[in-house]
Design a protein that fits this description.
Blueprint lengths: L2 H33 L3 H32 L3 H35 L10 H21 L2 H31 L4 H33 L14
């Protein structure tokens, strides 16, 4: 492989890591905007979303250019396809961060709720999943990727608990219905972000092992 094409692959990897860093930061800032009632952070999340969208486009353009002009070997082809899919998952996580920021802004206009249910726990767990899925990519660690996939069930469980707590809060004080539903939207956004982080981990496993473990319900083992 020529030095030019090696640099091309390196740039795809660098842009993917840059995109993951921005996405992780946006998700964290969106959660803080809610928990700290900080409208400035909510605005910042929305303003930075376009940069993440642009990075996804650049990565896809580089992937298409490489495939169409270079005729990559199977290993490189897998890296290119995986990079494009990871970029797409990161963009979707960033979209969920924007949703959280908008709901946080709405909630911050009104008196604080007595409880944020399981939102703080969910936010910490999902941020950890995202961080670890990218670390698995960087360190080429399939065990780490599998751990992320397993943790998704915990986030799903926290979401169900949040649904239950929101229902109880609304029954106790119907005047809070609008605010509680905003909170439930945040919980759903976090649950979806967790799904996307899990998807990244599955793509990392495919990249490293050449085995597609999507839709297996966790019924897989490393060879």
């Amino acid at each position: 492989m020529s030095v030019y094409w090696e640099q091309h692959l390196a740039e795809i990897r660098e842009q993917l890591l840059m995109m993951s860093g921005l996405t992780e930061r946006n998700l964290g800032q969106a959660a803080r905007a809610l928990m700290e009632r900080d409208g400035r952070l909510a605005d910042l999340v929305e303003s930075e979303d376009s940069e993440i969208d642009e990075l996804e486009k650049r990565i896809d353009e580089r992937v298409v250019t490489y495939i169409s002009t270079h005729g990559p070997m199977a290993r490189d082809c897998r890296f290119l396809i995986t990079s494009s899919k990871i970029a797409s998952e990161l963009e979707r996580i960033a979209d969920q961060a924007t949703t959280i920021a908008r709901r946080a802004r709405d909630l911050n206009r009104h008196p604080a709720l007595k409880s944020l249910a399981r939102i703080p726990t969910m936010a910490e767990a999902v941020q950890g999943m995202l961080r670890q899925s990218i670390r698995a990519f960087v360190e080429r660690d399939t065990d780490m990727a599998l751990e992320v996939i397993g943790r998704d069930r915990l986030v799903d469980s926290e979401y169900k608990d949040t649904q239950h707590e929101v229902e109880i809060a609304i029954m106790a004080d119907p005047a809070t219905t609008g605010r509680e539903l905003n909170l439930l939207t945040v919980a759903k956004a976090l649950e979806r972000a967790g799904d996307h982080a899990k998807n990244i981990a599955e793509e990392v496993f495919y990249l490293l092992k050449g085995e597609d473990i999507r839709h297996t319900g966790g019924a897989f083992r490393q060879s």
